[in-house]
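User: Could you check the structure of this?
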Amino acid sequence: MKSQLVLPSASRDHIRGSIDAPLALIEYGDYECPYCGEAEPIVQAVWKLLGDRLCFAFRNFPLVNAHPHAEHAAEAAEAAGAQGHFWEMHDLLFERQDALEDENLWKYALSLRLDADRLMRDALSGAYAERLREDIQSGMRNGVHGTPSFFVNGIAFDEELNVEGLLAILAESS
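Assistant: Sure, the predicted structure tokens are below.
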């Protein structure tokens, strides 16, 4: 059964592309999940190919029982977002998935020229815990049980993830 979920919101979601794009892709992901890491270059390629025709949103779904660093990584991405650099941190976390200890997050913040002390204070204090909880609850309401989980124009995408298949389903849904 396919789930219908709320499409990206400019006031709530971290988006790449235009909120008014005719195509919407939402990912529920976990920065420590190896499958999310494998999906990232596919998502990047599709986003680059479709450009202004695609609105891509990332929502946090840290699987804390399986990935002990996922929650702090998600908090760090949100804290970077509060400093105007969500996507830079997002990309860096996926590039360095095997190094998500708190000291690594601090170094990544420095490398992005963020206020690393503020970022770590926010990440470790749970300043974005409610936002993560909202993302997780949204995902669970829409049948997300694992990561990565994708939705194309609000409909669950259950096919094998590859550039060609994702482009085809996006074209079908437009």
